[in-house]
Design a protein that fits this description.
By secondary structure, this protein is α+β, with helices and mostly antiparallel strands. It has 15 helices and 18 strands. The chain is about 35% helix and about 20% strand. The strands form 4 sheets. It has a 7-stranded antiparallel β-sheet with strand order 15-12-14-13-17-18-16, with helices on both faces. It has a 5-stranded antiparallel β-sheet with strand order 5-6-10-8-9. Bound molecules: flavin-adenine dinucleotide (FAD).
């Protein structure tokens, strides 16, 4: 970027909110995936107006802009593929409005997800979507990726809670999409298009989210299985029995041992797999539902069913699940975390398929994830410097995606496409699907300057 362009950025954001030093460019060159590309400048927005001015400047000067929350994304979404400017949203953290009567909260997009609950709890409310990254990811990043979480099975994902948003479009216009009413059908479901848009269509600066009453009671238990198949079949049986637990998390033996080596969370090292299960709601119904869960798991090669008797015991089990990724990351120099997802009835087939892939390519794959909603995280543990192992892993990953598609599932349940899964999107949605996405992108961003190069390629003449 030229000196004059940097001065223009400083005029919009003030000098302390514009970085251009090499160390800073390195710090903002990656997210939680594997791609690393340095930007030419990093800016920190504190107002919607600044974001609007930035996009007008970027369009005038034809400079790519990549929005960034906390960079915890797992698909390369906030990596500046075409360099240019990284726009950090994490200083926009204000609570704009808390409206308990309508069970709504309006926040700036850079607010950390877990910062909502202490405010909501004052009116006995909570915000259900709880990605494993809840203590560091931002609401803007959650909306842009349509993040899921441990409670997705019963409570759904981010898209189920987004009511309204303030968005800066790629050419700088500021628009309000959606509405605070329970029902709203005036025009297209525009806020819906922005959920999962991965920063390609506009920059969210404020979001209004729905809240729910905190459940009266929670029952938590750990089901320990002698086989992977037993655990996968139990998930399917529990759902078929009519119970909807609020959480049903799966961890295989590799994951259990990685967690126990990382931090003692009381998980059984010799279990082939465990399910961490929680039911919630009115006290009697949560207890009755857990009794039904116990009946179902006991049909499936179970070794033990341990109930958490205190909140400390429950927190310890949940902590185990929350540190799973960090724990697996400490096993080998690198990991590749996937989020292929299938319908719950196909979970046993999916787990068997992943085991087959591991054997075929001699790979170390830890499996954990939100099994209750069919969303597994097969995690390839490897040393990327080992070319042979890397080549085998790439084949294993491609086969995993095909397996998910063959089982009528999806290559991504919650982490998005970004750069990591871009080569596989066409297999999922076909060339007509890609063309539709390109046309939508062109309508919003005719010069392809907002987060270019992600999710799908634009025809050559359109690229920045
Ligand atoms: C340990 C760990 C556990 C995780 N667990 C889960 C999980 O359980 N469920 C899950 O779904 N994900 C999970 N993730 C992935 C990640 O945390 C989520 O995708 C999260 O939503 C990303 O938020 P972020 O603020 O870090 O966004 P970033 O990674 O910075 O950005 C993600 C995408 O959103 C875009 N973006 C960011 N802010 C805005 C904005 N204001 N307007 C427009 N676009 C924007 C970026 O351009 C990028 O494309 C996990 C990640 C880690 C490291």
């Amino acid at each position: 970027m030229t000196k004059n362009q940097i001065q223009q950025l400083q005029a919009i954001f003030s000098s302390q909110n514009v970085l251009t030093e090499i160390e800073d460019m390195i710090a903002y060159s990656y997210d939680a995936s594997h791609v690393e590309i340095r930007p030419e400048a990093v800016v920190f927005a504190t107002t919607t107006e600044q974001v609007s001015q930035l996009m007008k400047f970027a369009y005038r000067e034809k400079i790519p802009v990549t929005p960034r929350g906390q960079g915890s994304g797992l698909s390369g979404g906030s990596v500046p593929f075409k360099k240019g400017i990284v726009l950090c949203m994490d200083k926009m953290k204000r609570i704009i409005d808390f409206d308990p009567a309508n069970r709504l909260i309006t926040v700036e997009a850079g607010l950390t997800t877990s910062d909502i609950d202490p405010i909501a709890a004052k009116a006995n409310l909570f915000y259900p979507p709880d990605p494993g990254s809840v203590t560091f990811s931002t609401i803007g990043g959650n909306v842009a990726e349509n993040a899921g979480g441990l409670r997705g099975l019963k409570y759904g994902v981010t898209k189920d809670y987004v009511k309204m948003m303030k968005v800066v479009l790629p050419q700088g216009e500021i628009v309000i999409l959606g509405n605070k009413c329970v029902k709203h059908v005036a025009g297209f479901n525009m806020e819906g298009i922005f959920v999962g848009s991965e920063g390609l269509l506009g920059i969210m600066t404020e979001v209004t989210l729905a809240l729910l009453p905190i459940p009266e009671h929670r029952e938590s238990a750990l089901a320990i299985f002698n086989s992977l198949d037993g655990a996968a079949q139990a998930v399917s049986d529990i759902i078929a029995s009519g119970v909807t637990p609020s959480t049903m998390e799966f961890m295989d033996n590799a994951t259990i041992n990685a967690i126990q080596n990382f931090k003692d969370c009381g998980l059984p090292r010799d279990g082939a797999a465990v399910l961490l299960i929680e039911t919630d709601g009115e006290k009697n119904s949560a207890i009755a539902e857990m009794a039904k869960v116990e009946q179902q798991v006991k049909k499936n090669d179970i070794r033990d069913f341990v109930r958490a008797k205190t909140s400390t015991e429950r927190d310890r089990l949940f902590e185990g699940r929350r540190v799973a990724l960090n724990a697996l990351a400490s096993v080998r120099p690198n990991l590749i975390l996937e989020d292929a997802t299938v319908m719950r009835s196909k979970l046993p087939e999916m787990v068997r398929g992943i085991t087959r892939i591991a054997e075929k390519y001699q790979l170390q794959i830890g499996i954990f994830g939100h099994a209750g909603d069919g969303n597994l995280h097969p995690t390839f543990l490897l040393d990327m410097r080992d070319k042979d192992e890397m080549a085998r892993t790439e084949k294993g990953v491609a086969e995993l995606f095909q397996l998910a598609i063959d089982l009528e599932g999806t290559i991504s349940g919650e982490h998005g496409i970004g750069l990591e899964k871009k080569p596989f999107l066409q297999n999922q949605i076909g060339s007509e699907g890609i063309r539709l996405l390109q046309n939508i992108k062109r309508t919003f961003d005719p010069l392809n300057l907002l987060n270019p190069g992600k999710m799908f390629d634009m025809p050559a003449e359109q690229t920045a």
